[in-house]
Amino acid sequence: MAGTIDARLAELGITLPNPAPPMANYIPYNTTGNLVVVSGQVPLDDGRIAITGKVGATVSVDEGRRAARLCFINVVAQLRAACGGDLDRVVKVVRLGGFIASPAEFTQHAAVMNGASDLAVEIFGEAGRHARTTIGVPALPGDAAAEVEGMFEIA
Q1: HSE-up (13 A, CA, CB side) for residue 14
Q2: What is the per-residue pLDDT across 6-56, written as a single tens digit (0 to 9) for each?
Q3: Calpha distance 108→20 (Å, rounded)
């Protein structure tokens, strides 16, 4: 029987991918006590970076928002692995960190990161409301347009 969060994902038309392996010398998530920290995830879709380039230059804000949403889907895939497959163990989305590849003059980072934040609330309801940091960076691994990391409380 699917759990509450799995049912919500199905309602949203989201199928979580298999968790992506790390791109370098780190682990995809780390658990300590009742906290899970998920390493930064790029906008992978079907095993490839789906949205590349700089938001505000070659990537629109709407596409950047879609990139952040894809990043969060990949964060949730890692979180599911950390929870032994049971996303109903998630008590709270504590914090999200967003990195948006953009030129120096770009200032709409928050609007882009809303792609991840909005999805956190869609999936986890009130427990999805979180603290957040969003910054612009000159480049990300694989020329990804965005990267999202997260911290979660689990039962």
Answers
A1: 20
A2: 999 999 999 999 999 998 999 999 999 999 999 999 999 999 999 999 999
A3: 28
15, 51, 98, 121 from 149: Cα distances, Å:
19, 17, 7, 16
pTM: 0.97
Collapsed DSSP state (helix, strand, coil) of residue 65: helix
C-alpha 37, offset from chain centre: 12
AA identity, residue 143: D
Structural element, H or E, at residue 118: helix 109-124
Q: How far is CA 97 from the centre of its chain?
A: 9
**Six token digits for residue 89:** 């163990």
- What are the chain's domains? 4-12+34-154 (3.30.1330.40)
Of 40, 143, 44, 48, the closest CA to residue 101 belongs to 143
pLDDT per position as a tens digit, 96-106: 999 999 999 99
